[in-house]
Amino acid sequence: MKKVIATSKAPGAIGPYSQAIIVGTMIYTSGQLPIDPETGEMVAHEIALQTRTCLKNVKAILEEAGSNMDKIVKTTVFLSDMANFVKMNEVYKEFFSGDFPARSAFQVARLPKDALVEIEVVAIL
Predict the structure, then answer these.
(1) pTM for this one?
(2) How far is residue 34's CA from residue 43's CA, in Å, rounded to a whole number?
(3) How far apart are CA 78 and CA 110, in angstroms?
């Protein structure tokens, strides 16, 4: 059985999908864009700020589900330009303590709303 997770502390879906789904003891988030949940607007077009906002949104969703960043087992990072990888990585590591989760990172042709980065995660409860 699956359970839908939704919080106003992260941006609402911009399409027909949920912020996250719990199945058993696993949480699967949708890709989080660098949208400020209070304004509904994309943050400045700068990779560090956008990465930080994506991860804050992930954190809010996990907390709503009863989990946290330390329980992430896998992340997927989508970048509009792999030249932003180093700066994204600098911010990314600020959100984790101890062992880092497994991760994939890809350059994609384009992201929704022309974001520089989008991040999705899989975590345990």
Answers:
(1) 0.97
(2) 6
(3) 9
Integer Cα distance of 92 and 73 in angstroms: 14
- Structure tokens, 5: 């997770």
**Phi and psi, residue 89, nearest 5°:** -60, -40
Contact predicate 123/35, CB 8 Å = no
Domain annotation for the chain: domains and CATH numbers: 2-124 (3.30.1330.40)
Question: What does the alpha-carbon distance between residue 61 and residue 4 come to, in Å, rounded to a whole number?
Answer: 11
Let me know: does 80 contact 114? Beta carbons within 8 Å.
Answer: yes
Placement of tokens 């792999």 in the chain: 82
Find, among 14, 113, 21, the residue nearest to 61 by Cα. 21
Cα–Cα distance measured from residue 102 to residue 90, given in angstroms and rounded to the nearest whole number: 16
What is the mean pLDDT, run by run of 10 residues, along the chain of 125 residues? 96 92 98 97 97 98 98 98 98 94 98 97 97
| Residues in contact with 86: Cβ distance below 8 Å, sequence separation at least 6, in sequence order | none
